[in-house]
Amino acid sequence: MLSNSLNQERPAQKAGFFELAPAKINLALHVVGQRADGYHLLETIVTFADKGDRLHFAPAEADSFHVSGRFGHLLHPTDATQNLVLRARDRLRQALQDAGHEAPPVALHLEKNLPIAAGIGGGSADAAAAIRGLLRLWNAELVEAVLATLALSLGADVPMCLKGEPLLARGIGEEMTPLPMLPSLPVVLGNPLVGVSTPEIFRRLPNKNNDPIGALDGDWMDVLHRLRNDLEPPARLLVPEVEQLSAEIKAEGALLTRMSGSGATCFGIFRNAEAAEHAAANLAAKRPDWYFQAAQTVGA
Hints:
By secondary structure, the protein is an alpha+beta fold. It folds into two domains: about 1-180, Ribosomal Protein S5, domain 2, CATH 3.30.230; about 185-295, Alpha-Beta Plaits (2-Layer Sandwich). It is built from ten helices and eleven strands. Strands 1, 2, 3, 4, 5, 6 and 7 form a seven-stranded mixed β-sheet that branches. Helix 2 (about 85-100) packs parallel to helix 3 (about 120-135) and helix 2 (about 85-100) runs antiparallel to helix 4. It is globular and about 55 Å long.
């Protein structure tokens, strides 16, 4: 059973069992090469916010999936081959059944609070939350190598979203090094709710063999200031709202502003949580048709 239900409470919500699918933030993203198969090689510093989508779980007599939230109406959960939550459910179920473990029907309810295709890992975060929650619901485990392969089969960002911790990712995202020293950061996320074509942004990259991130020594704000997002310049040309959004966040007192992933979400790092909350409220009042969210990232 699949539907977009925006108002009615569903069994998975009533169960009180949920997983947060946190927004993924690329604090820096360097494009350092391209493989023969066309995939771009990246180096990216990733962290995760304490805000995001929520995925609810409950045992059921038959599988079901419902969607709500500000951006729920933009999803089309009728195709299990396209929806990452359902693909994660089905592939995890198959892997567990192959290992001799039961994976009975489940009711899923996704609160879609993050913008769609926004460069903050919304779909990948949802898939990772599905994996974490279903393993809990089904009281099951998979060996790490099998779980890593399953996550990567769902998308390049799913393995890092499954980790959910600050890290340096390389390759197409599958080579991950934890960054436990990365502090928690007060941030504001903003998105003009304008679609961005990731393939087109990569196509417009003037150079696909840029300098790597290098050493991560010293004060983190100094480190981040010397880094960049190589996808931001072509995104600004393709979607002028990205430049405008970044300027408006900076005008609220952000210590650093940058685009995340392939956009169009931009973030600002603020001196404290109060400043971030104040900035998000001001920005939302000025641009009620855009998305703004104050958040705190995970970290030490």
